[in-house]
Design goal:
By secondary structure, the chain is mostly helical.
Length: about 575
């Protein structure tokens, strides 16, 4: 008790020694901590009547107005404060509180678009206030918002979010959101969910998509796999568990695992056969499998498999062992009447190295299928063979094709294919965003090759396509880009066409966070439409330069709440970059 009394005495002395406005400011913050901003406002307003020129109280008033979500009054108070304080933009905690006030208000808005923007911005911040906004999204009645909240929340392992994800696993009824939750259980390393995930695999009460997602999550949860565990999976009556075995060996493969994968090449399930053949090829390349005669025998038996994907995988494996025999088996697949079979075959061929180069060249020059030629061109460029004609095909395809594209996965290989993407709630122009990302990636290849068509092709791309990738899509797609391509794009910041300049700046800002785009973005804001303004704010946030703080603070006065939220997010990114 005596110690407590001493501490209270010290506190009393300190409060008496402090300036009156500092004491009031401390009480105001105490009100905010306990969640009573209305009392805080009364306190600070009363004190300002006595000390109207106090910068301390002026700052406290801004903080209170932010907590109350009174955005217009907050900005007016900030302008007054900044007029009297030339170092106002050095007050980083104050600007941060203003931004969070706008975000918290946006998270409670009636508009789903505004709520979504608030969640997206919160996701980018390492702050307890961000977790609260994400939790609100995970509990939102809107299926679309819950689904995106799951996608965003799974990228962090906060204990509150882990608990929310387990709750959703048991309570979520929307199929698409449930799939996202299943994926999140693995990505967030929620070990307690392992038994539940195992119960899904191969259980006919669950849809095939749920089983595939459960397999993916279980692979993410595994830290290793023993021979005993692998044997249990291989002998399972569920095809999903046997597929899990192939993926586990691909991740942790050791020599003692090889006989079990060889056994699975005879599986009744085509997907298991396909994956086991691809895993054997991977292990052979790594030097883990040394018995080439046995591998040749296994691959030969599967060359004529009734399932095309199995035959293609066997031919890919055989290319490492008996190239001539493999090429003879693969060539008919490259002329198959079904387009996707042709594309899977050229993708496998493109990943076969020198053994498949002669057939890859022949396919490139002779195929009448534009998608086969495009994928063959990518394969040739990766091997630095026939680079000039391959780059020419790439540049022509990116510039002329009107069809939307996507990356499709065929086991271990991916290939460019006609898009089957559909609209995704909450992600503006999702199919077009995917299409543009694929094209930009192909343009990056041209840039890396230092091809003379690269800059004209990128300019044509920006001229013909309004950049459709929003900050939402960028966050969900985990986009990447080539520095060579970005350097080429940067050359277009001085282009004579204003539209091209702005499109180039958006690409550099959203995908590269390149500060060279700042002035073009800020100059283009005034004349931009609403969508362009949103993208400009997102791009400035991605760049995160303190020089943008005055511009962004003024955007907190925009009439549209969504723009205010995006400006607040950009402010936080500039403050914490």
């Amino acid at each position: 008790m005596r110690r407590v009394g001493i501490l209270l005495g010290i506190a009393l002395v300190q409060s008496l020694a402090a300036a009156p406005e500092d004491v009031v400011s401390g009480r105001v913050r105490s009100h905010l901590v306990i969640g009573d901003p209305n009392s805080a406002l009364e306190e600070v307003q009363s004190a300002l009547e006595r000390y109207p020129y106090s910068q301390t109280l002026a700052a406290a008033r801004i903080e209170v107005l932010a907590a109350l979500g009174l955005e217009r009054q907050m900005l007016e108070a900030w302008r007054e404060y900044a007029t009297c304080n030339k170092n106002a933009f050095d007050e980083r905690p104050l600007i941060e509180n203003m931004a969070w006030g706008v975000l918290n208000h946006g998270a409670q808005a009636a508009s789903h678009t505004t709520q979504l923007a608030s969640m997206l911005v919160a996701h980018s911040q390492d702050d307890a206030r961000a977790v609260r906004i994400l939790v609100r999204g995970l509990r939102c009645p809107s299926t679309m918002l819950r689904g995106i909240a799951v996608e965003l929340a799974q990228k962090r392992r906060d204990p509150i979010l882990l608990e929310e994800m387990r709750r959703l696993y048991h309570q979520e009824h929307d199929f698409e959101v449930r799939l996202s939750v299943l994926r999140a259980l693995g990505r967030m390393k929620i070990i307690e969910a392992r038994r539940e995930l195992e119960g899904i695999i191969g259980n006919t009460n669950y849809m095939a998509e749920e089983q595939v997602m459960a397999i993916e999550s279980l692979v993410n949860l595994l830290e290793d796999i023993s021979v005993g565990e692998l044997q249990t999976l291989v002998n399972s009556s569920r095809a999903g568990m046997r597929r899990l075995a192939t993926q586990a060996v691909a991740l942790f493969g050791r020599a003692e695992h090889v006989p079990y994968i060889m056994f699975l090449t005879q599986d009744l399930n085509a997907s298991v056969r396909t994956e086991s053949l691809q895993v054997l090829g991977l292990l052979y390349r790594l030097g883990i499998v040394e018995d080439s005669a046995q591998l040749t025998s296994i691959a030969r038996r599967r060359l004529g498999d009734t399932d095309a994907a199995v035959g293609i995988s066997a031919a890919w494996l055989m290319l490492m062992l008996e190239p001539a025999e493999a090429r003879a088996a693969l060539e008919p697949k490259l002329r198959h009447p079904i387009s996707d079979v042709r594309l899977q075959a050229v993708a496998a061929l493109s990943h076969s190295g020198a053994a498949g180069l002669s057939l890859l060249r022949k396919t490139f020059h002779e195929s009448q299928d534009s998608y086969v030629r495009l994928n063959a061109a990518l394969g040739l460029i990766s091997q630095r063979a026939d680079v000039e004609p391959a780059c020419a095909v790439l540049a022509q395809a990116v510039g002329e094709s009107e069809q939307k594209w996507m990356w499709r996965q065929g086991g271990m290989w991916r290939y460019v294919a006609p898009s089957t993407e559909v609209h995704r709630p909450g992600v503006p122009n999702y199919p077009e965003a995917i299409n543009q990302m694929v094209r930009l990636e192909l343009l990056s290849v041209l840039a890396m090759m230092d091809h003379p068509d690269a800059l004209p092709a990128i300019r044509e791309f920006l001229t013909r396509n309004r950049w459709g990738l929003s900050g939402v899509a960028a966050a969900l797609l985990l986009v990447e880009g080539s520095e060579d391509a970005f350097d080429l794009v940067a050359k277009l910041l001085d282009d004579g066409d204003k539209k091209v300049r702005l499109q180039a700046a958006l690409v550099l800002g959203l995908l590269a966070g390149d500060s060279r785009a700042v002035s073009v973005l800020e100059d283009g804001y005034v004349d931009g439409d609403r969508v362009q303004k949103e993208q400009i704010l997102e791009a400035l946030g991605k760049i995160g330069k303190p020089q943008s703080l005055p511009f962004l603070v003024e955007r907190l006065g925009e009439p549209q709440q969504n723009l205010r939220v995006l400006a607040a997010g950009a402010l936080l990114q500039c403050l914490n970059h």
